[in-house]
Design brief:
about 475 residues, Aminopeptidase, 2 domains, 9-stranded mixed beta sheet, about 30% helix, binds manganese (II) ion
């Protein structure tokens, strides 16, 4: 066999790994950067699940979407674009397709919530002439990431007279911020050096520095705590008891930034999973008349197991589907709802871990996602032998692969880490229980679950194009 023949066979047989930036012309490259400017804006305005939900609703309304819960007759089939909100933090958008819903929808499901520090229900106290606030972390964090970092507070408080008060402090450059202190290296040796990381960084030590000017004179007790509470009362009318019925989140105050000399990456808090939120939102808004009904689902509570009435384990999707059947004058019986669900196809839109040049050892290089190599299909997630994963079928992965190849989407596949290294899950299995096909699909990130997660702008754009191609599919 001569060398030319060898090369030809190799070219035919081997799978091609494609770096997105190698395959973009000048115009496409400009398109990538333009798209990501808007994505950064979205990240900056979506620091919490509630804020992200608001952004989605605003964008949908601007494009003529109608609140499905305001449609009270079954004669609304002329309305093609609808949205549904549950408790201000679980959202769905739908564009009614040409085919009846009973033949299934094309769904993309992402999550709005990100790991963070929530204020406890009795948060305010004082210690050593300072006002402080206790937090309880939400989701999988590495606790040391949250030390010595400027933090903003975003929250919703229900007062005793049932008023809703929204607060945002620390987002504007002129705002004050809050912070969790860290130990100086000079004194850290003895108490930290030989300890396990879980002993060194403890959840009960994630307390926010919140003030240091007391109220009243030095004869009084609790005057630093009162100093903090008094400011909150003057500005928002809040009392200590109001924290009981409040959700106040401490999140990184920094805005999304370009990373690298070439500005090819984005560094930001909350890209898991707002990168999939934004790309699926834009894909849906760019899908005016699909064959199958196109639905974007934005869930809450994924980071704590998709629990609760706003998570993917809730009945939100069934409720939406029966609403969609109803407004289109179709049968809303249980059988029709089941068929609409089982005939649907779903991309579970979530991030994967990109192989890290400094921590290659936790990945298996042949099957790890890499930054810049396009949208990543993740056939299974889970831990210890795929446990807890929904594991997409060969048929469905094949179908998505065909859609992507036909539409020139640059894609890759990836596992979350080496076998038995750890693992994780997504909303996939909570949608698969309806019988629909589900595949995890989204960009890969570096420093996932940190306050500064890194994405490749090229991957973000490919994810958007991939989702759009999926929505446009006729299901044949
Ligand atoms: Mn996620
Ligand atoms: Mn996550």
């Amino acid at each position: 066999m001569d060398n030319t023949q060898f090369k030809k066979i190799k070219k035919t047989l081997f799978k091609k790994e494609r770096l997105v930036f190698d395959h973009l012309n000048k115009n496409q490259k400009a398109g990538v950067f333009k798209f990501n400017e808007q994505y950064k804006q979205f990240l900056n305005q979506s620091k919490t699940e509630r804020k992200a939900a608001l952004q989605i609703i605003q964008a949908a309304k601007a494009k003529g979407f109608v609140d499905i819960d305001t449609l009270t007759t079954n004669q609304s089939s002329h309305i093609k674009k609808v949205y549904k909100v549950f408790q201000g933090r679980c959202v769905a958008l739908a564009v009614i397709g040409k085919e009846p819903l009973i033949s299934g929808a094309n769904l993309i499901a992402s999550h709005l919530d990100s790991p963070r520090l929530d204020l406890k229900q009795n948060p305010v106290y004082e210690d050593l002439s300072m006002g402080l606030m206790k937090t309880h972390y939400y989701g999988g964090i590495r606790k040391y990431h949250w030390l010595a970092l400027p933090l903003a507070l975003h929250g919703t408080i229900i007062t005793s007279d049932n008023k809703t008060i929204d607060i945002t402090i620390g987002d504007h450059p002129d705002d004050p911020v809050f912070t969790v202190t860290d130990l100086l290296p000079h004194l850290a040796g003895k108490i930290q050096a030989d300890k396990k990381i879980s002993d060194v960084f403890q959840g009960e030590k994630l307390n926010l520095i919140s003030g240091s000017i007391p109220l009243g004179n030095d004869k009084e007790k609790d005057r630093f705590k009162l100093g903090v509470l008094n400011l909150l009362y003057e500005k928002y009318g809040l009392t200590e008891e109001d924290f009981i019925s409040a959700e106040i989140e401490a999140v990184p105050a920094e805005k999304a930034r370009d990373v690298g000399f070439d500005r090819s990456m984005i560094g930001s808090y909350g890209q898991d999973d707002r990168v999939c939120v934004y790309t699926s939102l834009e894909a849906l808004l760019d899908t005016p008349s699909p064959h199958k009904t196109a639905i974007a689902l934005f869930f809450d509570k994924e980071e704590i197991g998709s629990e609760g009435n706003s998570g993917a384990k809730s009945s939100f999707l069934e409720d939406l589907m029966s609403d969609l059947l109803f407004i289109n004058g179709q049968d809303t019986g249980n059988r029709s709802l089941r068929k609409a669900l089982i005939n649907s196809s779903c991309l579970s839109a979530d991030v994967n871990a990109a192989m890290d040049p400094d921590f290659k050892e936790v990945h298996e290089a042949m099957n790890a996602a890499k930054l810049g190599f396009g949208v990543c299909m993740t056939k299974f997630t889970g831990v210890a032998g795929k446990s807890g994963s929904s594991d997409a079928s060969a048929e469905f992965v094949g179908k998505i692969r065909q859609i992507f190849n036909t539409n020139k989407i640059i894609w890759q596949t990836g596992e979350l880490g080496k076998i038995d290294q750890g693992g994780g899950g997504t909303v996939a299995k909570f949608l698969a229980k309806f019988g629909m096909n589900v595949l995890d699909c989204g960009p890969a990130l570096l420093s996932m679950h940190s306050p500064f997660e890194i994405s490749s702008k090229a991957d973000v754009y490919m994810t958007f194009l991939g989702y759009k191609a999926f929505y446009a599919d006729n299901g044949k």
